[in-house]
């Protein structure tokens, strides 16, 4: 099997996550990509205690990695503008493909970097630069390519969303929540990029370019932070049926493109108004598809690595497959499908909602509880209503913990055989979907 | 510029939508694809009153189209298993790439079709087969390729979700809402495929295969419909903090794969529990990325066409571009970027939330309203609170209709100049995000 050789620059949070995901999921990734993706070298000043890099060559000099003739793809995860830019341009110069998670670099220097990449015939991929693990760059560049995009709006800074969620849910003041976010590691010691909207403006600049087909123009983005928001306004907004979110909004009008980051009232029943905590979401509205939404973790070690590695798979597929076989029909190579069996429903596991109509007499609940516990079924919650007028039966509603379905089938048969129970037991599955 | 020649089989809802989107967005699509996508022939028994097909050759014989040597890509939009299967296999035999929206065909005959396509070196694309315009096939096959997928769960039948939404929100009975759905055209005269979960099981079968890398096994999917759900259970679920949704669930366990479609209680605060009406959403949980969600229109003329045409762009890019240039960095070809200007914030349009602290005396509201109306600013809602204890000021909260920002800036300056107004006016933008 062919192997694509990768060099990782930077072994911090995202670099470490990328290394770990490539290692842990090596087999799954090879089944998808049709080739192996091998970390041939790492450039980092320090090791990462969360990574076992035994066996992988490490250099302290990123420029040594970038010029290493063995390496096909350079992964830039050091951040910032200066060295990162030099490093990426040098990698391109040496004919390497580049994967980066660096939103600031792409938003500010992307036009120049992409032009050099075109000249040299290499790919520069940057899915991880916007909304972490959510494949929203791919959704817009490829999934919605039929559409004239009308507008997009995103919660694209997790720190800001965490602060606003806490302000709303707990009535806390901005400064107070910011301190907690810093303690939790969600916000930097200098939180300016997050709370003043600069990070969001970097990401919005990128999204607007791929949505409308315009050059990157970060310097023209309007940026307003959340530092001046008060709990009074959060509460008034709530009373009017709105939530306040820190949004990046890009809209196409006849006159041009609106490109703006600011706190925004959104009707509380919109899906995006219910995206809370550090989570990210981007709405994209196209003339054919209407409104779509993409939701997930916008930052963090492995969510961001998920996007970096997906870019690596894209590059590997481009390098090693014929165009018509680039993405196999089922996503995995045809000769690498698994024989994992489909389980019969009796072997599936779920929690269950049960509705039982019981006679209103003592001891029924004890009998029901005994039947369930004998089959290893634990009760999570129970609700008993008053007797119904006509028949004197008491509706008893139970929600169980997770259990294999055949045990529930067996319990239902035993319950229905009780004299105290009338008619069939209603059974509906329950999933937490965490 | 190169041209990729497409033949559309079927000019019903989706076929008509595909034709119209390709025509209306021809320029935008060419800017993205790097080539034009031309409808060279249509096979249809009837014309579609929503399509102006003047100038496009039409045949009544799909097999004439499929063997037409001019055509590069056959778009199968006739539906069903029998003729559709024959047609797709014949197209592959003749070396044509195929794009289809036919979930039943892929779920039941996909293994055979994909094997033939591999032998002939052609692409079979089917994004439109699952969740209409939402690019969820692409998200799983490419966007999440770094992950070992743990589970996925989707609302993937709009008719069923419409019925459950109406039952919950309006306390209506299943039969009653089904009749309305049929009258509105959401449900077929024979609603079996929708309400018994067969349509959802087709789609779930496809999603599970691409998530776990297993062959398509529709016959092993457990399928339970929504016909037996009562409003009593919908209400009890609500009282326990849950919503009932008709979900397709696929989960990887050590023993195998759970593949099941059934009504499901979900905690009411989950994002997917708040996907209402005919909308679709799919949650995908991967070991690196965690939980992600994809939301949009799951059916309809142009949403489905959006996915069909995105597949055509994918095929066109594979045929006409070098691998490293398949998807241009900004999604549009570098020489096709637009010069659309970024608007200064004063030229952007939004609705506004204004908080004004006014003296508690007569005539203030009239002055405020006059200042706004003189600048063409209409008030959507107004909320006046009691005077605050300390200073006797009355907080007055206004939400305006949409207006250009410079008019609001001007109004705020005028408001702040009033003797009756204390301090600065708080201004937050409002977006409906429909």
Can you offer a commentary on this structure?
The structure is a homodimer of 434-residue chains. In chain A, 36% of the residues lie in helices and 26% in strands. With 434 residues, the first copy, chain A, is an alpha/beta fold. In chain A, the strands form 3 sheets. In chain A, strands 3-2-1-4-5-6 form a 6-stranded parallel β-sheet, sandwiched between helices. At the A-B interface, α1, α2, α5, α6 and α10 of A face α1, α2, α5, α6 and α10 of B. β12 (290-297) of chain A pairs antiparallel with β12 of chain B, so a sheet runs across the interface. Chains A, B: It comes from Pseudomonas flexibilis. Chains A, B: Keywords: Amino-acid biosynthesis, Metal-binding, Methionine biosynthesis, NAD, NADP, Oxidoreductase, Threonine biosynthesis. Chains A, B: One of its GO terms (biological process) is methionine biosynthetic process.
Can you describe this structure in just a few lines?
Two copies of one chain form a homodimer. By secondary structure, the first copy, chain A, is α/β, with parallel strands linked by helices. Chain A has helices spanning 13-24, 26-33, 62-66, 82-93, 103-120, 136-143, 158-170, 174-184, 192-195, 198-212, 231-239, 301-320, 364-374, 405-416, and strands spanning 3-9, 36-43, 58-59, 73-76, 97-100, 124-125, 149-155, 222-223, 242-252, 257-267, 279-286, 290-297, 349-359, 379-384, 393-400, 403-404, 421-430.
